[in-house]
Design brief:
440 residues; Rossmann fold; alpha/beta; 33% helix; 6-stranded parallel beta sheet
Amino acid sequence: MNKLKVGVVNLGCDKNRIDSEIIVGKVKEKYEVVNEPENADIIIINTCGFIESSKEESINTILEMSRFKEENCKVLIATGCLTQRYGSELLNLIPELDIILGVNDYDKLIESVEKVLKTNKQIAYTNYSDSNINVGKRIITTGSTTAYVRIAEGCNNTCAYCAIPKIRGRYRSRKMEDIISEVKELAINGYKEIILVAQDTTSYGIDIYKEKSLHILLKELSKINSIKWIRVLYCYAEELTDDIINEFATNDKVCKYVDIPIQHISDNILKSMRRKGRKRNITENILKLRKQIPDVVLRTTLIVGFPGECEEDFNELNEFVKEIKFDKLGVFTYSQEEDTVAAEMDNQIDEGIKEERYHQIMQTQQKISKEVNKNEVGKVYDVLVESKDGEVYIGRNSVMCPDVDGEIFIESKEKLKIGQFVKVKIIKALEYDLIAVLEK
């Protein structure tokens, strides 16, 4: 008897991607996994429910996948943040769905499928427990060189605009030995780069070790010989301790790439957002990073149009971007999310003004990015080769994060291997990407 075929569609952040990889690992024990949902008997959509645009994308994807029920699809499943947030409401909204699973219910996946196949009745599991962190055998979906590793789940911060703590629960770190064991296995399987993720990586260990322990974890992971790059995402700028900054500065395996989503810089807005940091300590830590790591690359994300953001607040943010010159920067317009403090605030900003401010910040950053990229010409880097397109190899250096930053296109007559590190010289800068040749 042929195995049923399963297709998994992942939406949202890197943490969602890890959940999807765990889901694929679970279903592969019983079913055949296929890349094309249209060929699947069972389709699983791992949704995002963070902001309005993410929710729209998730719902549209479910509706798009539901069309395949007229063909091969026997069971349509939605899981992830959207389902955890709205639960069985989605079954009423989208009756084509057969199964709803919350973010901690993947252990019920196969039994739920079997029940639906037998009874043809809808099933919803969206109970939540702060005690769980999704773990299990994963099928890595990020190629053969790079893998994401979750070091914690949930969040204790109470940012006024964010529903994540209500979806993912309180902050809980994974045991250091479990993370080390996972990374050792990835290293055995040939992975060269690991990317550490959590809602807030700088708080790692605060719950189970009673102190921030990211620097200790980095030190331990760097002892795993075949891992060449350790990248850390989602650091809170104000939570960067001297120990963490020193580890970034002195540990050769830790990428000199610091992702610090500051969201805003006006103290008025930071206070309204219920962010812990203020302009002074955020700026102090940025200057510490640049002093101790002269070649550090800084990435941030910002929110414009938060309730009550006046011209003065926005101008302060725009001037800060000009002054600091972040190497990489992303901007979101504020999304009014139900069940958050900010949704009930007065002085909501007009959508047109949000868009104007978004474009103004992006114009400011575009000039900075062009200058940053232009300064790359002539520099020599170690590059991880990840793919080939025709005669051109494509890779990244240690200060380029996959999927969010640019790439390096390597012109080479010499045959290179995927997963190989090569030394290249940058010969041309494009808007986001770089062109290089092998360094002789």
